[in-house]
Structures are given as structure tokens and as C-alpha cells.
Amino acid sequence: MLFSSLEFLFFFFPIVILVNFVLPKKARNYWLLAVSLFFYCWGEPTYFLLFLISILVNYCLGLLIFAVRKSEKALEKVLFIFALLLNFGLLFVTKYMNFLTENIRIWIPAWRGMIPVTSFVMPLAVSFYTFQNVGYIIDVHRGMDAEKNPCNYALFIAFFPQLLQGPILRYNAFCPYLNGRKVTADDFSEGVLRFLTGFNQKVLLANVLSEVAEAAFQAQDLSVGMAWLGLFAYSLQLYFDFSGYSDMALGLGRMFGFRFAENFDFPYASKSITEFWRRWHITMGAWFRDYLYFPLGGSRVKSAFRLVLNLLIVWIATGIWHGAEWTFILWGLLHGLFIVFEKLTDLPKRLAEKRTQQFLYRGVVLLAVMFGWVFFRSANIAQAFFYAKSLFKLAGNPWRDSLFKFNSVEYWMTYLFAVLCAFPFCRILRKRIAECGESAASAARVIWYLIQLILAVVSVSSLVMSTHNPFLYADF
Description:
Radius of gyration: 24 Å
Number of domains: 2
Structural class: mainly alpha
Number of strands: 0
Largest sheet: none
């Protein structure tokens, strides 16, 4: 059940929010847990029991690790390692086993008789809830108190606003909202506005841009112009798809009294690749930083070789997390090399006072990020290299064709609004208006609210007339 589906908008969410505020405060967590489990079961009935078992096992392991943490350090370490192996083992078998067996059979023909063809189906949201389970276990191992109430822990993992695509929550940030949270009129209003903003970006920008991206990536004969236009459209589609979902998740959480960490901060406005990853999928980047990069030694290591190795391990792992394909591994490696280059040369800091050169480097950063999306979007290595060659007229392709002409003219207004929304122009404008006085800020907020409401009506009309409504990150 997608947030932008009619079932969610007009059936599931109205009932959930109405009952939530009718119930006494002590019963609300149980209600949210029940509807969150229903939400997951609706989308993944096959692996629903596995999801429940994962929650229960990690809850019990957290309690055991906490109970023996001070008195039985050897046992605690065994339990901790067992918990990590169990969680990553589940993720590996369901998400990566098919990839592994397929590649072994290809690269080692002599083993084909011994290695079966596997066909595991990846459970919905397994990457996200595995990371939350593992993060919790690591935090308990490091000294955090374990949650004693199983329903509270289950709600932390299953809470439906963030379940399918994040943000990836930390228990110590989620726990304070479990008891005694309050939802003021301003909170609820801000939550509705945030949800509408993400909803409109998803439906009116990401869904429309996906048509251009699909036309380009599925084309057999691709002109240079269409290759770049399709890549431009996909770069914006991916951003509005995922940031739109994150905005909806943050808005839903706010309406229920929860405040989640921000997940996007206009990443295409970044001055460097390093900054881009501080602004894109922020909670995932923070997870890899705190639970992989820092334990490896981070940037505090003495040798440049070890620094490069740490960075490449993290970024290859980031690529693998996104999918079981060589394209994702190459995409992660590419970004790792970009960041290694910036770390070793310290280029972003050296350009800080050189505005012209910094502006030019911003363009290089954008092109590098867009080029990386070629591997992220392509179904396989062959398609990725064909598309990459098409960008630079190395595939014997023309400069432009009828597909490029049609998509340039048909969607020009969408491209314009997408670029305006991908950069913080509106935020800067609202900040400037707020500086003019409280009345001006209030008027601007009301106008912005009305704009989003009108756009929401257009978005719902678009959903009614169209069946094309994918969420890209639901596949990861």
C-alpha cells in the first residue's frame, strides 16, 4: 500500500488517524502497532510471519545482551555476534543468494553441478528493517538500555510511516516519543503540509519524469540528446520519488506526534560529492558512518592506504545494500573513488574561497552524480555501458532524434518546476519573507498551504486517471 495510492489516502489513513485521536493515550501505541502490522501484511503477506519472527528474535536478543553485558562479557560478545549473523544472514539469503549462485555458475563452470539455481524472493522492506534491528543491537551492545516492552520495540521496527523506505530510525531517537507525546494543532498542521508537499512532488514530478526516463533507458537506438535528457529526468525522478516519500513519512510521523530525522536536504545544491552524501539519504549515510566507517577507524587512521580502504569498503557496501547487481557495486565503487579523491586532495576546502572555480566544480559534481545514476538505473552492466557510450556519441548514435524532440517539447514545464523544486529557492524565499515580519510570514505560510492543497487535488485527479505510480526505493 503506497502512500500515494487511493487506498491509503481515502481508506487506510483516515481510519487510522481518526481512531488514534479517539482512543485514550495509553492505547495509541497498541493501535499504531496493529495498523502498522496490517500495513506490512497488506503489502507482504507471504513473509509477514518472517517479519514478526525477526522483530521478536531481535527484541529477545537485545534483552539477553543487556542482561549479561556487565557480568558475562564473553557470553555477551557471543550473543552480539550471533545477532549480527542472524540479521545479515536473513538479508543475505533473501536478497543476495540468487546473485551469488548465478555468478558462481557463470564464473566457475565446473561447479554448476554442485551449485543449485536459487529463486529466493526478497521480502518487502527487508533492507530497511534489518538496518534498524542491527542498529538497535549494536547500540545495546555499546551501552544503551534494552527496551523491555515488546510492543514498543515492535512499533519501532514496524511503524508504517517509515517502514517501507525509511528514514532509518535509531531507537534512542524514537523512544522518547513512545510515552507522553503530544500533538498540538501546529504539529498536526505542519505534518499535513509536509505530507502534501511530498505527495505532490511524488505524483506531479516523479511520476511524470519517470515516463521520460523509461523512454530513454528502454530505447534500442538512443540519440545523444535523448540519452542526456533521459538521465536528467531520471536524476530528478529518483530525487522526488525518494525525497517525496521521506517528506510524506515525516509528515505522517508529525501528525502522530513523532519527529523523525530529516532524510534529504537539497542534495543537488552540494558543492562536493562528500557534501552530496551529507544531504542525500541522510539516515542511511549516518548508519554506515556510525556502524561501519567509524568501527573501521574512520578518517583517524594514520596511513592513506587504510583511509582509502575504509572508504572503499563503506561505499562498496553502500552499493551492495541498494541491490544485488554488478551495476550497484560499480555505482558504489564510483562514489567511493570520488570521495577518496576529495579526501586525498582536500579539493572542496581549497576551492572554498575561489567562487568561480567552486561554481565550476559544482557543475562537475552534478555531472559525476548524474553519470553514476546510469549504473544505478540500468538493469545490467551491458545496458549501463551502452547508455554511457550513448551519452558521449560513442555508440554510433545521432545527436538527436524524434524521441528527443517529442520529450523536450512535451515535458518542458515539468523540467522547469522540477529544477526549481530540487534547489532551495522556495525555502530561501520563505526565509526572506519571514524576515519582513510575523504577519508576512503567516501570510506566506497560508498561501503555501493553499498552493499545496490545490496541487493535491490535481495529484489525486492524476492518480484516478493513471495506473503508473511506482516507488523506486521500495525495490531496495
